[in-house]
Fold each of these.
Amino acid sequence: MATSSIKAIPIMAIPSFNVCHNLELLKEQGKSLDPKRQEGEREEEGLSYEFQEMLESLPKERGWRTRHLYLFQGFWCQSKEIQAIMSFQKHFKPLQNDVVIATIPKSGTTWLKALTYTLLNRHRFDPVSSNTDHPLLTSNPHDLVPFFEYKLRLNGDVPDLFGLASPRTFATHVPFGSLKDSIEKPGVKVVYLCRNPFDTFISSWHYTNSIKSESVSPVSLDEGFDMYCRGLIGFGPFWEHMLAYWKESLKRPDKVLFLRYEDLKQDIESNLKKLASFLAVPFTEEEERKGIVKAIVELCSFESLKKLEVNKAGQSIKNFENRHLFRKGEVSDWINYLSPPQAERLSALVDDKLGGTGLTFRYC
Ligand code: A3P
């Protein structure tokens, strides 16, 4: 499995903003804080004083599943994500042929990871359904294609990624502006998956409330919707996230491929072929005859992944059960949740922010 050779290099490699190991000192300091503040401190647990000071200087708002979201490099994210992103930006060394999957959360990242991994590794792991050794049958896609800002950089670790099988495949939620310096090397490719903002919001709302810790109160639909429309969502505002990747895909179509969740749902085979050509591993006629395209589609389908034991009972991202990653997998579920005035508000916002850019969506 690709992740098995990831080794963690000790934190010493990051001189600034390193993890504070002096827990006694932290506890001492905590004694003078009020209980509410201490609850918030837990999400900042393990962050150095310099880092916490830097956090304090950032604009912050109420978070969805943590107490706060901070405005960092122009987008909203959690404190631990900021630490991981800074580490990734500082230490990541791209290699030719690296592939980076980029999304704003709940756009179908898990699906795209499964498809890309299976596609790129089809000569090592035959995707035909009779093959029971395929890694996707026993590992969640997030274990096969790691995020820069989560597992790889947990607690500020600097992993050794050179041993990974080529092409190395990573994922990220960071906006293009914060990723661009890390992908400039010729041959590095980015695949962006975009989902209509209506369904992305509903999916985010369900997911957040399913995985949030008990100490954080649930976000109601109305409250979450208002936050979303004000841009307050992890890695948002959503319109800036989508627009930056969209523009880059128009400017450099050989560098950034822009896919839509709704298109994948409508015609997965031709989108999978498009992805294969973009990644310079097109399907041969013989492969098509042998049914490889169909086998990949089937292996990565919502129904197949959802019923696997690893996705019913496993945990790939710390404290997040895999089962929450597979909810409905449909286009237009928003119709069951948003009131007509809410739909109008979001529609007007999308028109205002994205109208005239050429970026359009299908909502049903
Ligand atoms: P819903 O909550 O609308 O069901 P992400 O992977 O970025 O977290 O996105 C999660 C969304 O993608 C969820 O949407 C989930 O059900 C859907 N999804 C996960 N796997 C999928 C697959 N193989 N095919 C289609 N949709 C999938």
Amino acid sequence: MKKGRLISFEGPDGAGKSTQIKRLEAFLEARGFPYICSREPGGTPIGEKLRELILDKRYSEMSRRTEALLYAAARAQHVDEVIRPALEEGKIVICDRFTDSSIAYQGYGRTLGEDVIRALNAFATKGLQPDLTVLLLLDPEEGMRRAEKREALDRLESEAAAFRAKVNRGYLRIAEEEPDRVIYIDAGKDIEDIAAQIRKRMEVFLEE
Ligand code: TYD
């Protein structure tokens, strides 16, 4: 039986997830609240091996479906070995990336589709979903302005920019679909303001 709470942090690379995770850890520590912190892909010995395999640039031939399945495999192990046991002990589990990363990156970025990835996630997690997801995202208009300001992009850069735009669209879609679970935070805001917003939301869980 699940007694703890699962909090995931999501957003594109470089949105400030790790800074905010550290802030939240300090807050929980100060309150003497039992928690663990983990990450995906990874979080277990098998997961870390899979992480090496997925992120290894030598395997450029890896197909999109293979990639999606490997993320899901790492997640299944993570849920069984680390996340569920900790939740059963009543701990707060903070996870740096979880199911929404697959929806945004594989579903939207790699265009495998949201439904396929939701089904894959459901299989990998046996239906476990985050109780709360902190989504750190630059306001899309601000992102566009920044991109336009930059010099003309070369082909690889513009491919990377197009991929990032698709991932962002995926995240925005998730935030729209599940406003109760997902707090969408403008990653361009002040670090302290963001940390305060997350703490406020955490207070609700701690009171329960
Ligand atoms: P990582 O170095 O952890 O990036 P970050 O510090 O931005 O979290 O690399 C993880 C990469 O894996 C990141 O680019 C997102 C990607 N990813 C997916 O594409 N799908 C997933 O399901 C997960 C968990 C991560």
Amino acid sequence: MDNLFKTKDTPILIAGPCSVESREGLQKVTASLLALPEAQRPLLIRGGVWKPRTRPGGFEGLGEEALQWMADLRKEHPTARFCCEVARPSHVELCLRYGVDAVWIGSRTTGDPFSVGEICRALDSTTLAVMVKNPLTPDVNLWLGALERVQQAGITDIAAVHRGFFTYNNMGYRNNPLWEVPIELKRLLPDMPLLCDPSHIGGDRTLLPQLMQTALDLHFDGLMVEVHHDPSQALTDAAQQLTPDELHTILSTLHSHHDPEPPDTLKLLRQQIDAIDAQLIRLLGERLDVARRIADVKAENNMPVFQPKRWEEVLQRKMQIAAEAGINPQFIKSIYEKIHSESIRVQLASPPSATQKSPTDD
Ligand code: PEP
Ligand code: MN
């Protein structure tokens, strides 16, 4: 089989219902998706058949029966390719039996290396294409580890899927996008196709256009979007699913990019950014030297390293300067939290300077 996810300049589109709910529903959404102009590009139809539910009592998917419907639809539409979530080795075995083209390891499973290991033993030496969603927590190493386990099982058609993270404050999203985490994954695994699932990030279909555009702007290699033939009646994730027509409308308004040789103006601006960064880093070094001298003065005066009142004043002042300079104060706050924690670390690690008497000196 060709590599499903390495599709050069054409981002792959994965679309389909959150859950497969009925033969007719799957038939309708498959036929509508295959009739879209977007079906000319790499397209994979998704449909959950084993649904991880946070609370008991909801719709948990139809299992093997739904896989049979996918297999039947493939006879009707020979170009259709299907994928679903797997969370157990038995799921992988059933997907292989019914000729499913690709599977994904869901967010709840990625965070559990034991489960990922068991799934990988079932995947070993198969030709299934495999996607790995990010774990629920923003831990890039757990995500990386699951991808490595899949690679070690001999799977070559593999992609990472960013679906946001559960954080204390989800910033108005169902799952906080924390774009810096997939950006870090891309840095660690530059050749790994990285897809975005805006549906589970947004949790609300009105957020999808903006999230899909951001994913393209950030150079994601494809999108996984939940599409239902009648979203208002969906048994799971009704608020975030789109109709096939809505998907088409959004996709046709997105601005896609290409990646040419950078023009000279961009090269010059990048030189400026690099020079500014070098200055910033040198200044941070000077700031840390001052922090070490502060550590000496605090030690001489028997003062604790962390001074909550001073820290509050520093933070408020920096945020005020930021606001006056037209910079987002929350951005400056998050930078200063990092600077301050390094300053505390350095002060705690700072040996008493030569001018200070050690306790053993007379
Ligand atoms: C899904 O895609 O249907 C799903 C349950 O996703 P996640 O693992 O991202 O929550
Ligand atoms: Mn869903």
Amino acid sequence: LEGGPIAAEIRAAVAEDVARFRRDQGRPPGLAVVIIGRDAPSTVYLEQILRGCAKVGIDARFAELEGEATETAVVDAIKDLNADPAIDGVIVQMPLPRTIRLRAVIAAIDPAKDIDGIHPLNAGLLRLGYDGFLPATAHAAVEILRRSGIEIAGKDALVIGRSAVVGMPAAFLLVKEDATVTVAHSRTRDLPGKIGRADIIVVAAGHPGLVTGEMLKKGAVVVDVGINVVDGQIRGDVDFESARRVASAITPVPGGVG
Ligand code: NAP
């Protein structure tokens, strides 16, 4: 499963939407990324956001706070962006410093600008099967299946990981696509048995080598969301070399972004 060509296809459609927005509104859509302190991995991610926006004509900017910023300062910065008519989407860079509560940040974001889908309103819309902003990684995991022509309806899908940002939204999206979904986590018994029965597996555990080829059903489809740094290299949660021999389709990690 190749992300690159799919990303290019989505980017071309978004560029058309952006051009229409610009004609209608007389300005480009605006995205703000709230950054609290700077660490190396998130800097790479931020550069990707800026580059992605530049390619399609979205006006993206950072709202930077220092690493020692108080929760009140972060909430105030988010409220300023909520009130800014040139800003249509707000992303708060995770993980947050320990001193800042995720709940306070989530509560501060205007659901209409919550493009990462972290506000309970958007999470609730997804849970009910209605349209709303979707957490991007979970959306991507299911979109790569859909756009690669993988049949999802009626299939047994296993999602490994139950986080609010990746595992659970991926599971709800797969239910929406009419899969029969099992959600596994660190307390799941007989994970290999569940892996062996699944037609589609989305792995988002943050545990390198958790899934190997011997565990898979012949012809299974595997989407590896995991990002782990092992000996200075990026690895997924799936042992790609053994899994590719059994799977009918599998995402490499790292994948291309087009
Ligand atoms: P997270 O909040 O740490 O959640 C991990 C989930 O996996 C938890 O539900 C945990 O179970 C479960 N888990 C951990 N070890 C397990 C094991 N041995 N067996 C079964 N389940 C296990 O992580 P996250 O934010 O969801 O991210 C998951 C992975 O995706 C990470 O590698 C992260 O780096 C990656 N990620 C990738 C992207 C991307 O763009 N590709 C974006 C975001 C995240 P419990 O709930 O029981 O603890």
